[in-house]
Structures are given as C-alpha cells and as structure tokens.
Amino acid sequence: MIVPVSIPSPPPEWQVFNLGQWLRDIGLTWFGFDVNIYAYALCILAGIVVAVLLTNHRLTARGAEPWITLDIALFAVPFGIIGGRVYHVLTHPDDYFFEGADLLKTLYIWEGGMAIFGALIGGALGVWIGCRVTGIRFWSFADALAPGLLLAQAFGRLGNWFNQELFGLPTDLPWGLEIDRPNDAIPVGLPEDTLFHPTFLYEIVWNVTGAIVILLLARRVVLQWGKQLGIYLIWYGTGRSVFESIRLDPSELFLGIRVNVWGAWAAVVIGLVIIIIQSRRHTGLEPSVYTPGREWSPEAGVDSEDVYTDSDDEGNGAPVAAGPSGTTNATSGSAAKP
After folding, report:
1. What is the residue-wise DSSP string for 117-173?
2. Cβ(307)–Cβ(328) under 8 Å?
3. Could you give the CA distance from residue 94 to residue 58 in angstroms, rounded to a whole number?
4. What are phi and psi of 318, to 5 degrees?
5. Mode of pairing for the β-strands spanning 319-322 and 328-330
6. Element (H or E) spanning 38, and its range?
7. Which of 237, 304, 300, 230 is nearest to 271 (CA)?
8. What is the DSSP letter of 26?
9. Cis (ω within 30 of 0) for the bond into 182?
10. How far apart are CA 244 and CA 168, in angstroms?
C-alpha cells in the first residue's frame, strides 16, 4: 500500500535572510545596514567549497602542490558564474527582455537562474587559464574536478528547492512536490492541490550517485587524460536530458525540443569523443600533473611520491619516481594514482 506523502516546499521567507535585521534583533543596534543573504546563493557557495575541497584532495594525492586548486579556482569560479548566467539569460529571453523590463535583473544571480552548460563553458575557459598560470595539466585538473562538479551541482539543485523553481510535470506519486501559488510555471487550470515532479531531488540523487561512481571507478582502473571528465559529461548529460524533458519552466525550443535537452545530448557526445580520442592519443600514464618544466618540489626536496617520466610528454614511456636522494627508479603503472 502506498502512503500518500508529499514533499513540502520551504516558505517564501526561507529564500532570503536579512543579516542586518538579525544582528539588530540580538542587540547589535549599531549595525545599521540591511544585508540580504539568499538561500540559493548559499547553496551555490556550499557547492563551490565542496568541489574545491574534493578537487584539492584528489590533485594533491597525485603530487600537486597543496591548495594550488585555489589558484585555479580564482579563474574558474568567476568565469563559470558569468558563463552560467549569460547562458541562462540568453535561453530565457522572455524573462528578462520585454517592454518596461529592468535590465539590471539580468545580473541578479542571487534570485536564481544559473545554467550548468554555460557554467561548464565559462568554467572550462577559466580552468584553462588557471592551468596555464600554475603549470597544472588541464586534463589532470579536469579529472580531479569531475566528481566535485557533480556534488556542486547537487547543492545548486537544493537552491532551486528554496526558490520553488524548475519543478516537473504534475504527478500523483507519493513524493510529489508542493508548490505555492501563484507561480508562472504552473499551467492555468490545474487544481490548487496539484503536486509536481521534484526534479531538483531527481538531479541531486543522480549527481551524488554519479560522483560516487566516478570515485569508485578511479580506484579500480586508471582514468587519466580527461577520461573522468568524459564520464562526467556522459553521466550528467544522460540524466539531464531526462529531467529537463519533464520540467515545466519556460524554455527556448529548437525543432520542438528544449535547448537544454540539446545541450545535454551534446554533453554526452562530447564525453564520448573525449574518451575515444584520449584513449587513442595517450596509451600510457600521465607523466605528472604538471606540464614539463613546471613540476613542483617541496622545500625539503622532490617528494618521493611525485611521478615523473623518462620519456615524452605524451605519457608513452615508463613512469619514474624520484627518490629521497634525487635518484630515479622505474615504477609500475600503479605509481600514478588516478
């Protein structure tokens, strides 16, 4: 027997928290400024922090300088935010460009509206710049980042729940989502007690599962040269193409299909192309997470676990590990941690 249970949406007052008023309420009357803290923004920030921490842990385990991830994030995060916002605005023009519209609202990211495909494009550019500056290989960083990206997106979807946005078609399933009226995404004529598919929850579960899958695969097989990024694109694109198809929010269409569904299919294709091409181009292990000549050494000397190569830059030779005395010894493939 199925017990009817619905998922409530948070009350509107949970969407924004006035820090200034709270400080005054607890006696700090000298604080005269009103500072609004948006739940959506906090979710995005939490996702960024989690992604940076996990990426740093994985990159450091492969011999990178601790916290060099932060140097790359200084480029990747702002480029990703700008790309995500621009993509969202361009694919939802009716929400921002109409007679009497306040064009400044195109910048109000804290009110919601971030497109992951735009964030990926902008973030990739930022990562490329950051990697050029720090000497980290782009593909090494991309692989280290892949599971963290999925976790960051999961946190972002939690922000959609706070904003009561991006929900799916009506449903009578026991986990239907309650949405407050009025809401522009709800078709006219639906009963007040109509429940909707919680697409935010579907994506959270899908993304967290994908992060676990990538982490487990990387422990069992060697996935380098961007292959983990390829798996990420295939995994996310597959799930997003399904969840996007049942969403009710307005979206631009191309050949009768939502633009973001096309984007999801493109992500799957790009992921497959990356895996196929990189598998053919690089049959060996990555020599190091650093580009040639940019390797990092601790103050006490070269770390004995740092992995280098005595061959070419393509990773087609036998990896070697630098010992405490500076000599090198041939290692097995397991020396390069995925």
Report:
1. HHHHHHHHHHHHHHHHHHTB-HHHHHHHHHHHHHHHHHHHHHHHHHHT-S-BSEE-S
2. no
3. 42
4. -80, 125
5. antiparallel
6. strand 36-38
7. 230
8. T
9. yes
10. 8
- Sheet hosting strand 328-330, strand order edge to edge: 307-309, 319-322, 328-330
247 is in an annotated binding site: no
The Cα 256–Cα 62 span in angstroms is: 46
Give the helix/strand (H/E) hosting 253: strand 253-254
| 96 close to 111: Cβ distance less than 8 angstroms | no
Q: pTM, whole model, 2 decimals?
A: 0.81
- At 142-186, the pLDDT tens digits run 999 999 999 999 999 999 999 999 999 999 999 999 999 988 889
Q: What per-residue string of b and e applies to 152-175 under the rule 16 or more CB within 10 Å gives b?
A: bbbbbbbbbbbbbbbbbeebeeee
| Beta-strand pair 307-309/319-322 | antiparallel
Question: Taking phi first (over 0 means left), then psi (-120 to 50 degrees means alpha), and beta for anything else, what does residue 113 get?
Answer: left
Token pair, residue 119, equals 């964030």
